[in-house]
Amino acid sequence: MNKFQILVVEDDPPIRNLIATTLKTHDYKYLLAKDGEEAILQGSTHNPDVVFLDLGLPDIDGVEVIKRIREWSNMPIIVISARSEDEDKIEALDAGADDYLTKPFSVEELLARLRVMQRRIAMLQPDNDVAESSVYENGKLKIDLAAGCAYKNGEELKLTPIEYKLLCLLARNTGKVLTHKYITQKIWGSAWDSNVASLRVFMATLRKKLEDKNDNAVYIQTHVGIGYRMLKVDAG
Ligand code: CA
């Protein structure tokens, strides 16, 4: 039995059943929610490993559900929506979603995205990487790798799981330029073009949270067309 538990938020019964049957066939545990309020309730009571979230819900919009969940949790959220415009995707990703799948979707792709999320969660486990019991410090940035939290000026940065993973990856390689391909491979387990596009979005949101006007230091440097680098910042 797969230990993984997925919260499926979908108001359309045939699609909900399709996803539930697929998960059951592949030995995943799951919970079902048919609207936004139920999703938030289930999310807070059961703390699922991953959420599959429809955006067009009868009570509150899915983007609002993402924002509400992000107030207290970094649980990975995969949006599954019929909305296929770029701005819809960007809105959902900016609100804190980790991935976006457009309806109609293939069950195989859904499972593949889920496996990516599982790998990523496994990589986030503290015992998985080079004995990371330590604390990373760079200027006013501090990452408690064991606790999985990042701080700036002593205040916790509210990062999504992908933003945190990106930050750790760059921090572990401070001073080195990491290519788009290397980063997407490390974060998503693949280097599809769509991941490179997502990387730009996540990097933008990460920077918005990390770099602030009270601190002149630049932590993440862009190398146009190549990738990104974490710079060593003076403590002063
Ligand atoms: Ca719907």
Describe it.
By secondary structure, the protein is of the alpha/beta class. The protein has two domains: 119 residues, Rossmann fold (3-Layer(aba) Sandwich), CATH 3.40.50.2300; 100 residues, Arc Repressor Mutant, subunit A (Orthogonal Bundle). 42% of the residues lie in helices and 20% in strands. It has eight helices and twelve strands. The protein has a five-stranded parallel β-sheet, sandwiched between helices. A four-stranded antiparallel β-sheet has the order 6-7-8-9, covered by helices on one side. β7 and β8 form a beta hairpin. α6 crosses α8. The longest helix is centred in the middle third of the chain and has 18 residues. The protein is globular. About 3% of the residues have low confidence. The structure holds calcium ion. Calcium ion binds next to loops.
Summarize the entry for a quick read.
With 236 residues, this protein is α/β, with parallel strands linked by helices. The protein folds into two domains: 5-123, Response regulator (Rossmann fold), CATH 3.40.50; 131-230, Winged helix-like DNA-binding domain superfamily/Winged helix DNA-binding domain (Arc Repressor Mutant, subunit A, Orthogonal Bundle). Helix content is 42%, strand content 20%.
Strand order of the largest sheet: 2-1-3-4-5
For the record, the count of structural domains works out to: 2
> How would you spell out the order of helices and strands?
EHEHEHEHEHEEEEHEHHEE
| Name of the CATH class of the largest domain | Alpha Beta
Largest sheet: 5 strands, parallel
Strand content: 15-25%
Model regions low in confidence, pLDDT < 50 over at least 5 residues:
127-132
- Counting helices, strands and paired strands, the structural category is alpha/beta
> With helices defined by DSSP (H or I, 4 residues minimum), what is the helix count?
8
Oligomer kind: single chain
Bound heterogens, unique: calcium ion
CATH superfamily of the largest domain: Response regulator
- Amino- and carboxy-terminal Cα gap: 52 Å
* General shape: globular
Number of strands: 12
Instruction: Please give the CATH architecture of the largest domain.
Output: 3-Layer(aba) Sandwich
Fold-level CATH name of the largest domain: Rossmann fold
The average pLDDT score comes to 89
